[in-house]
Each structure stands twice: as C-alpha cells, then as structure tokens.
Design a protein that fits this description.
The chain is an alpha+beta fold. It has 11 helices and 4 strands. A 4-stranded antiparallel β-sheet has the order 1-2-3-4, with helices on one face.
C-alpha cells in the first residue's frame, strides 16, 4: 500500500498545478451597427400594433394551410434532420474533450497455463531439479489508472473549442429551422401566386379567342384587314404560350414543397390543388434593431462561436511548447495459485510519473500556432461579414416589401379604373356605340393589370417572409426549445 500512499501527493500536486491555461481568453469583438435600419420608417408606417410574434411569424398570415405546412416541414424536413444530427455529433465531441481532462482507468485480468519442454538444455537441467513441475499457471487481475495533468491548459483549451463548436452546431440547427420555415412559406406563396396567374391567363385566352373569332368573321366579310387578323392571332398565341410556362412553374413549386416536407414529389399535390387567395403580408414589429441582430440571427451566432473556437485552438497549439506530465498507477493481484489470488502476498502495486516534451520540434509547433492564428483571423472576418450581410438582408427585404406593396396599391387603382372602363365599353356596346372588339380589348387590358397585380401581391408576401427571416424569426434565442409546436430537438 506504500505505493498508493506515495501517489497521493503527486495527484494533489498535479491538481494544484493544473490551474492556468496558456493563450488569451476569448473576448467577443465589438461590431459597429447603425441605430436603426434605413427602411425602418417605411416599415413602421405600414405596420400595426398587432405584429405577429417572431417565434412563429407565419401564423401572422392567418392562413391555416400555410401554418400546417410549416409545422410539417419543421418535423419532417431532411435538411433540418441533418443539422440536428450534427448537434448530436458535436455534443459527443464535447463529452470526449471533457473526459480527456479526467483520469482514465481500466481493469484487466488474465488466466494462463503453461507446459515447459524437458528436451531443451534448460528443460533438462530443470527436470533434474527435485520438485520441478513442468506445468504452471498464472492468475492476474489489475486496476490501472492514468492521468495527464493539464498543467498548461492545452486540454482545457481543446474542451473550450469543443464547447464553442457544440454551441455553433446548436445555432446552425436553429438557422436551418429558420431557413426551412421561410422556404416552406415562400414556396406556398409562390404556389398561390402561380395559381392566381394561371386563372387570369386562362381568362385572357378566352377573351383573345373571342376577339379572334370576331376579327376572323369580319375578315371573311371583307370588313377587317388581314393585318388585324394576324394581330389577333399573334395576341392569342402570346397568351397561350404563357400558360405552359406558368403551369411548369406551378408543378416545380409543388414538387419543391413536397421535398421541403420530406416527402416524395406529388405527395401533397392534392392538398394544394384548389386555388386559394395569395396570403396578405402581416405587420412587422420594430423590436429587433440592428444591434439586436447579433443575438437574434443564428447564422451570426454560428460565426461568433466558430471565432471563439478558433481562439481556444490557438491556446491548445501554444500548449505544445510546454512539457506534458502524466501520472499512472496500478493495483492488482498476481499468483500461480488461484486460491491465493486475493491474499496479501499476491498484492502488487505500481506508481509512476511520465514526462514528454517536443523540445526539438518547436519549428513545427510554431507553424501550428501561426496556422491557428490565421484561422482565427479568417473567422473574425467571417463574423464581421455575417453581421454586415444580416443588416443587408434586412434592408433589402424591407425595401422590396414597401415598394412591392406600393406597386400593388397602384395596380389596384389601375384595376379599378380599367374595370370601370370595361363596364363603360360594355354599356356602349349594348347601346350600339362601340364594337365588341373594343369591349374585348378593354377586357384584355383589365386582365393584364390583374396579372401584374397578382405578381405584385406574391412578391410583397415573399418580401414579408424574407423580412421575418432576415430578422431571425422562427426561434427564441432565450429558450431554444420554444420554437413552435414542432420539437426543436436541441436546436
């Protein structure tokens, strides 16, 4: 037991020495940001007090189908499943880095038998010895332990880097949730917009077909010129040619929706077969200012945590300049007779201390430190760039939303005027003042304006979705588990 008593001071000394860590401690860098967004004033003008909660912003569109599809995608999307799996991997790496700081122990045991030869020189000599037994056995059990003392903090820096990587993976999973929710909502709006435009295009085809029939009849009677007939045929062909493009876009959007929901293309097509109004963009709150994006946007959090990890790895690289000290010990029993396996005479103990030092490898260590510093510089630039791009995303989304809504209002006014003009031309036609061609021409202009308005409505709704995404909507940074009814799974 004396070996054990001699190991105790060594263990205590190692624990005391393992109190410092080389390398600089991480300090989150400050980033400059404007007080308010340039487009904030315009957003405030259009917004009401009932802006939806950023955590579940899609519910603000008041569309049950949209809400249901987003919920499904957050449960079943495969990109999100990959991100959550990476969180599990990072958590395991953190546990491994933490375990490296602790002593490791193992238990070994063996039972062996042997039979010595009597035909060798040694065997003949031993055989002539009285009481020689050519048969032998060994029974041995050992408990071994080892501990690398983290005197200079290299292992702690590695654990610090692993913890930052784990936190980055959690934020990356949150970013994947934001992306999935936004893509699902954006695809849904695109589907509704394309359905509206297809319905308008089909009405345009009907109008142009009626116009062509009238012109052909007049041409046959010699009233209309051939140029008018060709123009009417060309206008019809132009509208008819737009239908396959719109229908192809609708099918592609429906297929994309199925993939977002983690299903085979065509799975949910029947659920979206019936047309529905284009969702109206909800109000957008102004609580998340430029300075709040650093805490709100998970992609910025990812970049910042990777910066912290790169800083910790500099310390881990610097620690290679210093020696590594380890302690080891063994307690066990070894005997040739199983009946005495746990007797005092069979007890054995060992204790030791080891030292390793890359004393003649400083050139390579210096290169590793320089590489670690370079990676930190790159991570710092990536972090600052992520902040700039986040602000850019918000500004672009706000600008698009305001201008598209302004365009939609203008087109709504034009649609109202053209509706009156069409009604007036119809009344004039019934009174025999104008021809049916003028009525159908008014119909065509009205339908074209409605198509442009449907596009403006679609783009306004998509810009609202982009705004919520740019603001980091879709999760709660203070409580990552409170993201939606769907399970965040550690995101």
């Amino acid at each position: 037991m004396h070996a054990v008593s001699r190991m105790v001071p060594l263990l205590l000394t190692g624990g005391v020495l393992a109190g410092c860590a080389v390398g600089s401690d991480y300090v989150r860098p400050d980033v400059a940001s404007p007080a308010v967004y340039m487009g904030q004033a315009a957003i405030d003008e259009r917004s009401a007090a009932n802006a939806p909660d950023l955590v579940s912003w899609w519910e603000g569109f008041n569309d049950p189908v949209l809400t249901r599809l987003v919920s499904i995608s957050l449960r079943q999307n495969l990109d999100l499943a990959q991100a959550i799996a990476r969180v599990t991997q990072s958590r395991a790496s953190l546990r491994s880095a933490t375990a490296a700081l602790l002593p490791s122990a193992d238990v070994t045991g063996q039972v062996a038998t042997s039979e010595s030869s009597e035909q060798t020189g040694l065997g003949r000599a031993l055989a002539a010895t009285p009481g020689f037994d050519r048969y032998g056995a060994l029974y041995e059990t050992d408990l071994g332990a080892s501990w690398e003392l983290d005197i200079f903090g290299g292992l702690r820096r590695q654990r610090e880097a692993a913890r930052s990587d784990y936190q980055a993976s959690r934020a990356d999973a949150a970013a994947a949730r934001l992306s999935v929710a936004a893509q699902t909502a954006d695809t849904y709006v695109a589907i509704r917009g394309l359905q509206a435009r297809i319905a308008i295009a089909r009405r345009q085809v009907e109008t142009q077909q009626r116009l062509l029939a009238i012109v052909r009849l007049q041409y046959d009677k010699g009233v209309a010129a051939e140029l008018q007939l060709e123009q009417a045929q060309g206008a019809l062909a132009q509208v008819q040619a737009s239908l396959p493009v719109l229908e192809d876009g609708l099918e592609a959007a429906q297929n994309a929706m199925d993939v977002l929901l983690g299903a085979e293309p065509g799975t949910h097509r029947a659920d979206l077969a019936d047309s529905a109004p284009i969702p109206i963009p909800p109000a957008i709150g102004s609580a998340v200012g430029p300075a709040d994006l650093v805490r709100r946007r998970p992609d910025i959090i990812v970049a910042e945590r990777r910066l912290a990890a790169s800083n910790a790895r500099i310390g881990a690289a610097i620690a290679e300049y210093y020696p590594k000290v380890s302690l080891s010990g063994l307690l066990g029993s070894a005997t040739a007779d199983a009946s005495t396996a746990f007797s005092g005479g069979a007890f054995e103990a060992q204790g030791g201390a080891g030292l390793s030092w890359r004393l003649f490898d400083f050139g390579r260590i210096g290169a590793e430190v320089a590489a670690a510093r370079g990676r930190k510089a790159a991570a710092l630039a990536a972090y600052r760039l992520s902040v700039l791009r986040a602000t850019e995303d918000v500004e672009d989304a706000f600008s698009t939303l305001v201008k598209r809504e302004r365009q939609e209002r203008t087109l709504a006014g034009g649609e109202t005027s053209l509706t009156r003009a069409r009604d007036a031309s119809l009344a004039a036609y019934k009174g025999g003042v104008v021809s049916l061609i003028e009525v159908l021409d008014a119909d065509g202009r009205l339908l074209a304006t409605r198509d442009a308005r449907a596009q403006a409505q679609t783009e306004a709704a998509r810009a609202a979705i982009a705004s919520f995404r740019a603001l980091g909507g879709g999760w709660d940074p203070k409580s990552p588990g409170r993201t939606t009814s769907a399970n965040a799974a550690g995101a």
